[in-house]
Design a protein that fits this description.
Elements (H helix, E strand, L loop, with lengths): L1 E2 H10 L5 E6 L2 H15 L5 H4 E5 L5 H9 L8 E6 L18 H8 L7 E8 L9 H4 L6 E5 L4 H14 L6 H10 L4 H15 L6 H7 L4 H13 L3 H13 L4 H23 L4 H7 L4 H11 L4 H20 L4 H13 L3
Parallel strand pairs: 1-6, 2-5, 2-6, 3-4, 4-5
Length: 344
């Protein structure tokens, strides 16, 4: 099993495997690497003839087999992708809608794929805390397994430094270390935070104060995910994140403040969206990073203005209870999450 930074090095060297199974929480990052592989191996003028993509929830084995066995046309390779291959999840069925055990057939065939073809399928986690499944591990000796996990330590610093350099900006070791400690270890966030810092610093060096001023703390991403699960009517997932934040030692009152703040921003975004304001305008008006603004605008689609107002009212009621009534704070926070998730 390799991580995506190792895959990146292999792509740069022009070294490719016959088959890849990718997994992780960040689907966009997975798609970006599939595009990198395709761009290297398939003649763009004939992309429609040498690139096949199938929905993992409906695909059958014969469709995959026929695509992989077809000779590429005016191109070095043929690339076949199965996206959102949910049959790779431990809690999912191996069978497609026709009752075919697609997982078993792929296990038997994957080592026989012709050299002319590259097979890629990927599985997206429901949340960042999910781990590699047993079904994916069953392919370890037969395909290249690529983990799209969060970056850590020196690997994170190396990637962040490369991003700054790609934007024509150098950054000191101390500042780089501080930057990596401040931002969430998600490549999309790192790219956008680096872009923001480069634009802000312009021709001068990036300083500790710049990073302190502009970069969002990691906890904000946990709160974003918590609220996101509430918006998807998945309170059990939101409570998992709540428990993890509280286990780290964060007080219920602080978490509540951050949740309430998130809903207040979303309310302003929702009102702005209904007035026809653009992402760029709202980002500037609310002083949000353009990437964060875009994600929160998507989140807002699951909330009406009325529902957001009710969510804020529930937060205020919970705040009063935490201050004035006895009882376990954790229980009150869990009840808040459930009550917001069932709002109509």
């Amino acid at each position: 099993m390799v991580n995506y930074l190792e895959l990146d090095d292999e792509i740069k060297k022009g070294k490719f495997k016959n088959s890849y199974i990718m997994f992780g929480f960040n689907e966009q990052l997975i798609k970006d690497y599939i595009k990198k592989i395709t761009n290297k191996l398939v003649n763009n003028d004939f992309i429609s003839l040498n690139y096949d993509v199938f929905d993992g929830s409906t695909v059958d084995f014969d469709s995959i087999y026929n695509a992989l066995e077809t000779v590429p046309f005016m191109s070095e390779k043929r690339v076949v992708v199965v996206y959102r291959a949910n049959f790779l999840g431990d809690n999912s069925k191996n069978f497609n809608k026709n009752g075919e055990d697609i997982l078993k057939r792929l296990e038997d065939y994957i080592t026989k794929i012709p050299e002319q073809s590259i097979f890629i399928m990927y599985y997206v986690f429901d949340n960042p805390r999910e781990k590699i499944t047993k079904k994916i591990r069953s392919f370890e000796k037969k395909a290249c397994i690529v983990e799209f996990s969060k970056l850590k330590g020196l690997g994170l610093q190396k990637k962040a430094k490369e991003i700054f350099e790609s934007k024509g900006k150098s950054i000191g070791k101390a500042e780089l270390s501080f930057f990596c400690s401040k931002v969430d270890d998600n490549i999309d966030i790192i790219i956008n935070e680096a872009e923001k810092l480069c634009c802000y610093a312009e021709d001068r060096d990036i300083t500790h104060d710049d990073i302190e001023l502009l970069c969002h703390p990691k906890e904000s991403n946990d709160i974003f995910n918590l609220v996101d699960f509430i918006s998807q009517s998945k309170p059990e997932k939101a409570i998992e994140i709540l428990n993890e934040i509280m286990f780290k030692g964060e007080k219920a009152s602080v978490i509540l403040y951050m949740i309430e703040r998130q809903f207040r921003i979303m309310l302003n975004l929702r009102i702005g969206m209904e007035k026809g304001k653009s992402k760029e305008a709202l980002s500037k008006e609310l002083r949000l990073n353009i990437y964060i603004c875009d994600k929160m605008m998507n989140q807002c689609k699951n909330f009406s203005v009325n529902k957001l107002v009710k969510a804020i009212d529930l937060c205020l009621s919970t705040e009063k209870e935490l201050k004035s009534l006895s009882g376990e704070a954790k229980f009150k926070m869990e009840l808040l999450i459930i009550n917001i998730a069932i709002l109509r």
